[in-house]
Each structure stands twice: as C-alpha cells, then as structure tokens.
C-alpha cells in the first residue's frame, strides 16, 4: 500500500498523496487510522487492509490508552477526566 514506517516508531506508518495524509498506528493486535480526509484516505486504507486481513471496524475512537478523545466543531480534544473522577 506504499505506507512508510516511521523512523521514530516502527509501529507507525504514514502515506501522503497530494497533501492528504493517512497514518496507521499499530498496538499489539489493534490499529488506529488517522487522516486528513476520512472519505478518501481512511476509507480506502480500511478497504485495502480489510482485503488482506480479517478486521473489525469499531468506529471512531473514544478512548485510547486511557485517554478520552472528544471531537467538537472546534477540533479534537484529549483529556483524562474519568481517571481524575476514579482516583
């Protein structure tokens, strides 16, 4: 798929085509896809990966390694309010 492995982290792959970027981050047997355009970059990467591997799509991430992810019109925010409430 012409993704290139990150020099700093071999579990992170990226691909840039015409100023549109798609990033795949792998952690054990999970992966997360990030991109500048969902309809083009992320969906085409999901389709290509799904044709090679058995996959499940759990939708947009809401929690990643204990960090809560909130999307608003103003951007994407990461916080740990559940951690604070529980401890």
Query: What does the overall shape look like?
Result: globular
Largest sheet: 4 strands, antiparallel
Gap between N and C termini: 43 Å
Secondary-structure element pattern, one letter each = EEEEHEEEH
Radius of gyration: 15 Å
Give the overall average pLDDT. 88
Oligomer: single chain
Describe this structure in words.
The protein is an alpha+beta fold and 87 residues long. The chain folds into 2 domains: 1-56, no CATH class; 58-87, no CATH class. Helix content is 24%, strand content 40%. It is built from 2 helices and 7 strands, in the order ββββαβββα. It has helices spanning 38-52, 81-86; strands at residues 4-5, 12-17, 20-27, 30-35, 63-64, 67-72, 75-79. A 4-stranded antiparallel β-sheet has the order 1-2-3-4. Strand 5 (63-64) and strand 6 (67-72) form a beta hairpin. The N and C termini lie far apart (43 Å).
